[in-house]
Amino acid sequence: MGYRGKLITLSIIAIGLVALYLTIGANGNWDYVLPRRGYKIAAIVLTGATIAFSTMVFQTITNNRILTPSIIGLDSLYLLIQTFIIFTFGSLSVVMINKHLNFAVSIGFMVIFAWLLFKLLFNREGRNIYFLLLVGLVFGTLFGSLTTFMQVLIDPNEFLMVQNRMFASFNNVNTDLFWTSVMLVIIIFIYSYRYIKYLDILSLGKEHAVNLGVNYDQVVKRLLIVIAILVAIATALVGPITFLGLLVANVAHEFMKTYQHKYLIAGAVLISIVALVGGQLIVERIFAFSTPLSVIINFVGGVYFLYLLLRETKKW
Amino acid sequence: MVEVMNVSKQYQSKKVVDNVSVKIRKGTITSFIGPNGAGKSTLLSIVSRLIAKDQGEVKIDDVDISKTKSDELAKKVSILKQSNNITIRLTIRDLVSFGRFPYSQGRLTKEDKKYIDEAISYMELEDIQDKFLDQLSGGQRQRAHIAMVIAQDTEYILLDEPLNNLDMKHSVQIMKVLRRMVDELGKTIVIVLHDINFASCYSDFIVALKDGKIVREGPAQEIITNSVLKEIYDMDIPINCVGDKKICVYFT
Fold this sequence. Notes:
Chain A has helices at 3-23, 30-62, 74-89, 94-97, 99-122, 129-153, 156-166, 175-193, 196-202, 206-211, 216-238, 243-256, 261-286, 293-311. Chain A contains 14 helices and no strands. Chain A has 316 residues and is mainly alpha-helical. Chain A has one domain: ABC transporter involved in vitamin B12 uptake, BtuC (Orthogonal Bundle). By secondary structure, chain B is of the alpha/beta class. In chain B, the strands form three sheets. Chain B has a six-stranded mixed sheet with strand order 6-7-8-3-9-10, with helices on both faces. A four-stranded antiparallel sheet of chain B has the order 2-1-4-5, with helices on one face. In chain B, helix 3 (92-98) packs parallel to helix 6 and helix 5 runs antiparallel to helix 6 (138-152). Classes of the chains: A mainly alpha (316), B alpha/beta (252). The interface between A and B is medium-sized, with 22 and 32 residues.
């Protein structure tokens, strides 16, 4: 099967799952069912695409297939922001009630944090990308500790509000935020389109990239900012969800068997949608909302990934 | 012509390259020799913009490289470093195709494919061009990397210890190919070598570095002398003539 064949197969599976999700058990209540499920499925597709794209790019930049953007502490920062707002202003404050404001504040802080990290990385020579990861990791742990500290101090009722934000959930996607996110993601995808051709070269490593005329520092810096914004959007929309990226990026590599990022990214996006929609179907129809989506995706995806690794003993 | 003018580079307090000026003539093989830590690789990396210099100027064909766009420079000068650990899975042909990126930006034209075929046949890799890099021996992999540099079709080619980890046969094969590239295609090659006998037999000019400074430079035959080598390596090396080549016996 060629690359196109594989992508078409994935697309058919994804569209089939989406159609199944929209129609299953509707009992003719289309006016009620379709808009509700439609927004949910659109949010799933949006976050799936966002996470798949950002993880794929992140792994290429770092030349490392076991990393996800969560390592630079963006997820932890999101939780810290939410906890801090509830801790200082309370769950009924305007920053908590006004979703747009909350969204803007979360994304703003995450992007500023990412930008500061990159400043630290690129202002001095000899600092490599692993230094950035190390600093990010340390900050992530710090944010995590601060969050826990505040969580044990606040009122238990307020803690429930925090807890709501701690897990990825598609069950109450805010429709206002949804359209803002769609706009932002589309703008970013258009912006990063011209960088896709550099990704193949970046996967050869820094020295080859510079030799082949890629303006390495500039391209990497811009792509990292793009990753930060995308992760921030996905996290603010549905909660911490970068766990998905590690799995879909690796399954995409194993499934597509190419180094060409135009196929890899398309494959990862589709696999991500299949995993999320399939997972959500299982959560809703089989487990009746009793199990978090992440558990199902990690279980099913993990098993599939092990199967891929065991079937092909040779190194990829 | 590559002109290096008063270039310095220091890490913390150690000057790795110390006020070096050198000119590299077109259409020649110039070898950089010297003991470990002499600054040969650093100098090569500075010339190819992989490392930023602290002071000085590097001009390639009278144009300052720090004022040239990186993608334009990639059509003029190429570099191959000694460690090439590529983490993705590529065939030889894929790798060589990457050499056309400065021209094609990822969309290979017919002309690009012609260059790729030529580069592969130049390095005699046709039979194994669809093999993956991780299935190759060290010599084959090194040849594949050089084929990529050939496909990049730059006037200036900088090679950092290309003979590292290669056996005698492959070392000779690669040096012969480099010689042919200079003689037949008119390329200019700068190469960092550890084996002074390869430098003696294949290069036109030798630049000897020590402690970040140039100790000697000149035509190969003038550098390969007992007194000069003593200055560079602190070793008393007898030199024998075999045929018309000067061979240094540095083993005992």
